[in-house]
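re: ur question from yesterday

yeah so i grabbed the chain u mentioned. its 198 aa long if i counted rite. heres the sequnce exactly as i have it in my notes:
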Amino acid sequence: MTSGMRWRIFVLQIGLIGILGFVSGFAFWASNFATSTVHDQLAAQQIYFPVAGSPALTVLPKVDEIAMTQYAGQELLTGQQAQVYANNFINVHLGLIGAGQTYSQLSTAAQADPTNVKLAGEVATIFKGTTLRSMLLNAYGWGQIGMFAGYAAIGLLIAAIAVLGAFVFEIFSLVTSRKPETTTRVSPVIPSTARGVA
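ran it thru and got these structure tokens back, copy pasting raw so excuse formatting
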């Protein structure tokens, strides 16, 4: 390998180390930002899962009860918890209101019958429930983005370390493969006439 080619490879490796290190650091920051923002926003809502064995859980279908019980009594603070609460608790209760109709369907029916107080109450309840569910699922989505950014950060850091290792190996190989300059020792030649002189 020529000296010029070797230096091009060194420059490329240094550039890759810098780029991978920067992007890895940014991904770690993004992961931390998304995760901590989700946590802080959910903590401000002070939502708690019902305690294990409570009627709020036992009335749920078995699959939903099992999903909710894993977080029983805990405060809702993570994206994973938000998904479970939204899909296995709020969504089940929303299905019981207005015979499983959506907000749009109930709202249309309420506009057609403005004197129906029961229907107006169902519209208000399903609107609030649907809004809370969508906000929790939004928190879940951002929680997932934070988690994936964390995985990407780890992968990029490993790649940066691998390139750094290759760079160090190349430098080490360059230093150890250089042949030391050999000096030949020249012995003075003594003329034969001088040797015979006593």
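noticed a couple things. The first helix runs from residue 3 to 45. also The helical segments are 3-45, 55-58, 62-69, 79-96, 103-112, 117-177, 192-195.
anyway ttyl
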